[in-house]
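Hi support team,

I submitted a single chain yesterday and got back a structure, but I'm not sure I'm reading the token output correctly. Could someone confirm the output below corresponds to the sequence I sent? I've pasted both exactly as they appear in my results page.

Thanks,
R.
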Amino acid sequence: MTARQHGWQLESTSADLYERLLVPTVTQKWAHDLIQRVGLGPGDRVLDVACGTGVVARLAAVEVGERGRVAAVDVNHGMLAVASSLPPLAGATIEWHEASADALPFDDREFDVVLCQLGLQFFPDSSAALREMRRVLVSAGRCGASVFAAIERNPAARALADAVDRRFGAHASHAKRSEHALADQVELRALFEAAGFTGIRLVAVRRTIVFASVTDWVEIQFAATPLAALVADRDPAERWRLLGVVCADVRDALVAFESEGAFAFPQEVNVVLADA
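Hi R., thanks for writing in. Yes, this is the structure output for that exact sequence:
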């Protein structure tokens, strides 16, 4: 399966920006949370599915140490290129693999832990991907996954999606709204049960995300996420005009979250922990 068949993809320049601008401010927070909830120990063998630029894999490598193993899989070549170019941290050496989540390039029962941060909602076949994750786990293995909660519970994402549809046309915000496509906890639990997981625990977790301003956050969304495609072919004047009106719309909707020198808003994800 190609990268283009997956629902959330970045070209190489955007992948660089994603690592520099969104990992430190957003995904690193969620990576720490997920790893803490799953619990990793020295010597564990860990697989990170939909690894992106590798923040979960790098943190896991530190936790499992040199006796452990960390493998990371993503379908996006650009994201993997950024991931593998970053300086290694202490701990296990990370193996980077370009592959689809529904056809993992590993034997049965190779791993003690499988992690998937904010990626499950983008897989063309989430059920097949979960079956693959369970297949590569040992019988006493465990899985930890997170997905964004409903967009209605994520005010910044909702305000941006509404503004994009208003300024670019109906359904222009599909890439943003798709981040929340697997938000229903009942559906999530059913997917894990159907894949054969047991002992399923599901919790909604809320964190505060901080950027310098609404403008800063919106511009990053249009540079380092798939929303970049909406302005990529516009001339510079039109691009900045559109960004300006979107920023104004979002600022009007989120005035309660912006103060002098900071834009701090709540973000909510659903975290699933399960046994193989």
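A quick pointer for reading it: Strands lie at 45-49, 69-74, 94-98, 111-117, 137-148, 198-211, 258-259, 262-275. Let us know if anything else looks off.

Best,
Support desk
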